Amino acid sequence: MATEILMPALSPTMTEGKLARWLKKEGDPIRPGEVIAEIETDKATMEVEAVDEGVLAKIVVPEGTEGVAVNSVIAVLDGPPATPAPKPAAAPEPAPVPAAPAVAKSASTAQPAAAVNPSEATLSAYSGPTAPMTVREALREAMALEMRRDPDVFLMGEEVGQYQGAYKVSQGLLDEFGPKRVLDTPITEHGFTGLAVGAAFAGLKPIVEFMTFNFSMQAIDQIINSAAKTLYMSGGQIRCPIVFRGPNGAAARVAAQHSQCFASWYAHCPGLKVVAPWSSEDAKGLLRAAIRDPNPVIVLENEVMYGQTFPCPTDPEFVLPIGKAKIERPGRDVTIVAFSICVGYAMEAAESLAKEGIEAEVINLRTLRPLDVETIFASVRKTNRIVSVEEGWPYAGIGAEIAARVTEACFDWLDAPPVRVTGEDVPMPYAANLEKLALPNAAKVAAAAKRVLYR
Amino acid sequence: MATAETTGKRKGKVALAMTREELLAAWRMMLLIRRFEEKAGQLYGMGLIGGFCHLYIGQEAVVVGIQGVLREGDQVITSYRDHGHMLACGMDPKGVMAELTGRIGGYSKGKGGSMHMFSAEKGFYGGHGIVGAQVSLGTGIAFANWYRENGHVCVTYFGEGAANQGQVYESFNLASLWKLPVLYVIENNRYAMGTAVERATPTKDLSQRGAVWGIPGRQVDGMDVLKVREAAEEAIAYVRSGNGPYLMELLTYRFRGHSMSDPAKYRTREEVQRMREERDPIEGARKILLEHYGVGENELRAIEDEVRRIVQEAADFAQASPEPPESELYTDVLVETAA
Question: pTM surpassing 0.90?
């Protein structure tokens, strides 16, 4: 009986990969545990081990094929039907649901042609040439460009060098800049963060990569008490030109300690700037600006966005201003304000609302501190309604701040109370169905928009 | 450790550790710190200095002994007990005192206070209120020296209380791993606020706290400026030669409370009295100046007068300097950037 071998998922957020190499050919006998193929993603290269015994009857996907979707058939095995259920070769669990919800979501936004990508019109602020680029590549290019430009800029963090980055954002930087400027640190967030802040006091321009922002909590004293406050406490004498960057927010199926949004935590603190890119354009322009900024800047990236492709400005001088939002999609009926991955949900929601005759204006905040309230206010004075979207918790969140500011400044223009779409007020659950419930999505955003429109 | 005993042994070493002029300068600086701190205590009592105010009285030999071996461009960073370090770095007593009184003439325009003062010009990087935070920061300043290959050393001071903070050891690990030019100095004044060192750690010799990372350590009598100086020379030479970090533990004692508001129930009056009488670093140095260097009482008295005048001028300035204008509330939050 034939068993299908499926493309395995090597990480919670993987949606596709390259079938780099077959180690077996058609007709070869296969034993469980044998390595049969190598798969490459933008993050890593992994070996695929056989689960079932048999003979490799047919290779469906030839080696060298890029963009092979997770769970698609890559080969067929003839052999004793020991287990009736076909399994992805390297995935330990039977996985009746093809992928975790967030993975499914990212799959729906991963296509370059999808509606969530900015149209030409929305790139109006930048009129130069663009090229398709993943968010990951855009971040890497931003760092490489700034490191070439300024010898005081260096990158430090866990696995940023020899491993080429836990999420491959820093891939290739060690080769170009050497071990003095791309420093692998031990797992010691409090220590290396304090060290980097001290180096910034002395005039260097460190980029500190947190493998994820969850681990920045180990070091948050140095970020707030040292990096953010020393300029003030020194009467303007001691500057701290430093960037803290890394993936923030929910990944997929990694549960409470590895899935949380730090936007509100850091945006709360005077002395910091906080940016949160969504697209490749955002990533490149904001990270370059962050590295050049003489202040401490928190760059909240998103793991799910790393592999997504957007048109990205190629002008060597391209950089974005910190503190300026971008209207990703103009509209007159309702304002939807979002940042990071949630901009994609807002764009998706706007698309579906448009089919019902509702024109939503989507504002990509880009910067959370300082907040571009002028752009928000101008939009609300036009649409008279506002929905905010974020992955973080509602209590004292970014949406709460936006609601307060809009109520203070635009009270007379509002036709409905502001509505917040947020992550649920619970630690992130592991179970796929509960996790899906806990996070914002396009449908929740569309429903909120209708609520403020009383429809 | 009787004074007579150590004095007897010291005789031969005097010439080695410091020249007459060096010891005289050290004595003057210790005296300046002492008188400055006494004045700060007085102003605190008058309500002119607010909040926390941690005096350095008793520990003067530590910072003065070490500062003497530093070069222009080397850096210093310490905790909140920082007035002595600032004066030793050559910062203006007026600016320090005016910061204590929260005036615009202070080093931080009155916005930092006793615990948070800096002078980029003099290589003094604070003044940090979070116990142990300055250890990682100092390691980072040393990292910048290493990165720039400029030959400078960052002296990173912390108390024996901070020596139990986790980030101290994260820093030791990184400094030793990357051979950073940092001199760690534990000022062991025996009490972390009210907790005696033996109630906080079973470690008898804190200078060995870096041993597992291969950081050499040395315990030094911190009440004797000559011994401090001699040990600091060895330590700085080691660090400056690119060997990586070095750890000094200075056995010292603060004659005053942890801060101004300290009920001092954790040690006896007799203990404090005995230390003041037998181990006062300023009296010790004075004796050597008189007995071994033939310095005259008149010369010392002239220095005392000069120091008293400097401190009085600082106190006058600190009271005459106006409070920061209200417009200062919102300055220095961020470095302004061109939009």
Answer: no
